[in-house]
Amino acid sequence: MTSTVPDPTSTLTTEPPAKRVLLAAPRGYCAGVDRAVVAVEKALETYGAPVYVRKEIVHNKHVVETLRDRGAIFVEETDEVPTGARLVFSAHGVSPAVREAAAARSLDTIDATCPLVTKVHKEAVRFAKDDYDILLIGHTGHEEVEGTAGEAPDHVQVVNSPDDVDDVVVRDPAKIVWISQTTLSVDETMETVRRLREKFPELQDPPSDDICYATQNRQVAVKKLAPDCDVVIVVGSANSSNSVRLVEVALQAGARTSYRVDRATEIEDAWLEGARTVGVTSGASVPEILVEDVIRHLDRHGFGTVEEVRTATEDLMFSLPRELRAGLKASGQDAKRPRRESRTQLPVQPV
Question: Per UniProt, where does isopentenyl diphosphate bind (predicted)?
Fold first, then answer.
């Protein structure tokens, strides 16, 4: 009886695992962004061009460029707008000083501030009225932070990160409260709160969570898929706080690498070398067409299977700004609008 000794130089040939895309859900447009973008579109349809917009209506290059092509004129400040013209306030909100400047120029304003941002503004006003020191966790210079701080400039101080806590000084440690920018990293915000509470044990919480539901949902979805990904690609602009945070969250959750792109053409071939699983998501100001372009790009590089990783379903929708609803009604138009389609039209397999 003879036995055959396996040749150590031979190997079994096996097919490598198929390349795949894990597509985060929820992703893309949130209700506040949807409302703001539609507000500008409806204003252009109803009143005609030009319609002026203070700052970017939302932080996304594609959206801004598309609206500019349709006749929107984006300005930095109200003094750039002709007297008596129509001006839209962006989704990020504005301070009372900006509203007063607009009124002084007799501008016909449409307030597209996200209702969740407005909620934070009202919290600042309420706590300032009760003479609290208000610790606003957020990024200095961001439009939302400028608008919120402007509601109570004598009571608000901005805390940019956990490392800023040591520099915080308050009048009365027994009378302080924290509020936050709506688009922050949940984990980093809570770490900042933890350090603040160590320093100020009587620190009060806001009456409700300030970080936007959509920001939280997108971060949760990325945390779910990141550990299985060699690469996570986040579609979103560089000035989009929530998009930038998604890159950080992906890396912290276990993705080998993560990159942010405005559009598919920015994806570098080197990022995909050796990768078998690529995660894809998008910030809350990103239209789905940009995600579809990324999926097509990945398909051309062999990532032909797309599996959706869903952690929540969003059905919230905000009504259009009241000033615009009044204008639509006066012109005989329907002030209601269908919700935008936020799901990709490409073949996707649920996980």
Answer: 59, 92, 142, 240-242, 285
Catalytic residue among 144, 146, 151, 308: 144
217 annotated as belonging to a binding site for a ligand: no
Please report, as a single letter, which amino acid is at residue 105. R
Task: Say if residues 137 and 193 touch (Cβ distance below 8 Å).
Answer: yes
Using alpha carbons, select from 328, 289, 341 the residue that is nearest to residue 44: 328
Q: Note down pLDDT in tens along the chain; length 351 residues.
A: 444 444 544 444 455 678 999 999 999 999 999 999 999 999 999 999 999 999 999 999 999 999 999 999 999 999 999 999 999 999 999 999 999 999 999 999 999 999 999 999 999 999 999 999 999 999 999 999 999 999 999 999 999 999 999 999 999 999 999 999 999 999 999 999 999 999 999 999 999 889 999 999 999 999 999 999 999 999 999 999 999 999 999 999 999 999 999 999 999 999 999 999 999 999 999 999 999 999 999 999 999 999 999 999 999 999 999 999 988 887 777 766 545 545 666 677 776
Annotated catalytic residue 144? yes
Three-class DSSP category at 11: coil
What is the distance between the alpha carbons of residues 63 and 53, in angstroms, rounded to a whole number?
13
Amino acid, res. 134: I
> Which of 150, 152, 149, 171 lies closest to 160, judged by CA?
149
Cβ–Cβ < 8 Å for 217, 188: no
Helix then strand count (H, E) for the chain reads: 11, 13
The token pair that represents 108 in the structure block: 């016909």
Contacts of 346 (CB under 8 A, 6+ apart): 292, 295, 296, 306
Q: Which of 77, 71, 73, 72 is nearest to 94 (CA)?
A: 77
Euclidean distance between CA atoms 21 and 7, whole angstroms: 38
User: Is 114 marked as binding a ligand?
Assistant: yes
* Three-state SS sequence of 217-264: HHHHHHHHHHHHCCEEEEECCCCCHHHHHHHHHHHHCCCCEEEEECCH
331 is in an annotated binding site: no
